[in-house]
Design brief:
The complex is a heterodimer of chains A (562) and B (163). In chain A, strands 3-2-4-5-7-6 form a 6-stranded parallel β-sheet, with helices on both faces. A 6-stranded parallel β-sheet of chain A has the order 11-10-9-12-13-14, with helices on both faces. Chain A contains 24 helices and 20 strands. The longest helix of chain A has 16 residues. With 562 residues, chain A is of the alpha/beta class. With 163 residues, chain B is of the alpha+beta class. The two termini of chain B are 28 Å apart. Classes of the chains: A alpha/beta (562), B alpha+beta (163). Chains A and B meet through loops of A and α1 and α2 of B.
Amino acid sequence: MENMSGARALMKALEKEGVKEVFGLPGGANLPMYDELYKSNIRHILVRHEQSAAHMADGFGRVSRKAGVCFATSGPGATNIVTGLATAQADSSPMIAVTGQVPVKMIGRDAFQESDIIGISNPVVKYAFQPREAGEIPEVVKKGFYIAETGRPGAVLIDVPKDVQQNEAEMVFPDEVRIRGYHPWTDPDIVETERAIEMLLSAHKPIILAGGGVIISGAFSELQSIAEMLMIPVVTTFKGKGAFPENHALSLGPIGMHGHAEANKLMTEADCVLAIGTRFSDRSVGTFEEFEKNLKIIHMDVDPAEIGKNQTTHVAVVGDVKASLRIMIKLLMKRALKKSDDNVWIKHVNEVRDYWRQNLKIHPGELSAARILRKLREVLPKEAIVTTEVGQHQMWASLFFDVIHPGTFFSSTGLGTMGWGFPAAIGAKTARPDLAVVDIAGDGSFNMTENSLATSVLENLPVIVFLVNNYSLGMVAQWQRTFYERRMIGVDQKNCPDYVKLAESYGAQGIRAQSLDELGKAIKAGLKSDVATVIDIPIDPEEDVLPFVAPGTPLKDMILPS
Amino acid sequence: MIVMWAILSILVENKPGVLFKVTNMFRSRNFNIDSISVGITENPEYSRMTITTYGDEKQIQQIVKQLDKMIDTIEVKRLDEHKTVYRELVLFKIKVSKAADSMEINKLANAYGAKVHDAKKESIMVELTATPDQISAFEELIRPFGILEIARTGIAALQRTGA
């Protein structure tokens, strides 16, 4: 036992969790913790807006699979991180947000910079704590990391009143904690796994649907083993993009609203799906009713509440998907599997895939989405980490940027938060300074958090912003062209700002690429640069993302480029 | 889609904010609370919430799973109404227009095992502890007199031993 302030205990508890960096912005109500941060070994990375701190922590967490940590003050500082909490929670990303709060006696009196962040954040976090005594802090931090990182990971808020930071107490730092109502570990059921195998083996047209859960649990080699053992083609959700190498012979790419034509087509033809770590989002499946028609669904997920939530499941294997897949592999190895070269389904799969890979029409311009993203793939090392913003560029990335090295592609897929990609890339670079990090961005999204250029430059966290610039809120513009008879409103961003000058004004590198050749050189310059690089790539503002499954329609009604 | 009535018995951490989280889950996921009662249990660290709700089988299963997933819930049970004792307490304030009304109301109250309180010239208060069906039946019988006010507690329920 040691006597110390709550703020000191907070830093010590964070250090015990292995935290080396926090992203944040100080204010009145978190000054005591900042004073202790000053004295600690933890690096502070200063942001220009608290939302970016949360996205950085989120990006850090997704890449390292350890909770990223962000700090914000009370009131507006706390409300500014709400979007970041919701984004992390929607994508099951481990994150800890520590906010300052007004002193306990002032809570409920509408004090200056008081916000009821516990009440506000409740629906968008996995759990929220508000310690009322300094002595609670070590246990709260331990529980916070335990909740954020285990089971289905998520966002945890720790709201610390200023006097709780200042007060001294005898501190006990627990090595482990138990929470009565929280049981994140379920051992995968062997009987159910056997049933799943039987169902897969008796299917004529089986398919694997890999979701984000495969990436979160790092079950890449297990997924590949199962696919290869059973010779089953693999589609992914958008969040699961890169769970399986997209240059693999069995890879068909993502399904969904802007899925690959071959993936959507073959998904609708399949008679049995092994769905791993997915919540069957509407963006992935089109319509729930049509998706499950004539389809046997085997669902593996760590979260029992996902079983049967959106789709009717025939076999459910609840547990960490990596553990479940390992059991499946063991059980499969006991069987004598006949590998047939004369597999009608695989032949058909290959035909459909080859047809669409050769015949999907792309925009004719030199700087079409497909060509610039293929150029990026060609130049970028395969281990590089890629994040995206939200919009057309994100869906083009899904269609035209192949993820070769599993677990190197991250996007705000659930909440669809514009402005996420750039700060998340900075968070990713913090976790993996040895790797190149690229944010595939659109101009509309980048505008929302572009002031993170200051953080990137001053904190020496160089990333590349691959700015697919159509001078507009392109996805909305596409919907207005498609569904609202070209009544274009609120989408024209004009040529403002000048992104080269913007980058330079922050001390970053700004390059405009007006040909594929210039683009290749710009990416190489970005990879060598010590500062952030913004590559402004002007494209045709009228280019649409196709194929397109219109909202509320089934995958089979996919609109193709004409 | 067959809509059914379900009684959920939820053991939760007895601490501030838990009721908010549970009810907020119902709101945010588009489920409805039909009745709710909350009270401390034999162990002061826990409270028991009894929630009744309507939905089809899939919705009720989803409600149970979402409740189970919450970190502040210790145990969630869906009670079979045939193996459960469930009761609700209700207070009726009933209008008395003429002297005969008073006698009639007293008679009905007796028949239903209800207690009469606060008998005044212009109104009578009746306390009834019963199942929701019995309460509805009683309510229909006294409606002609004129119901001035109603206060209901929501259902409390426990499973029968060995059931």
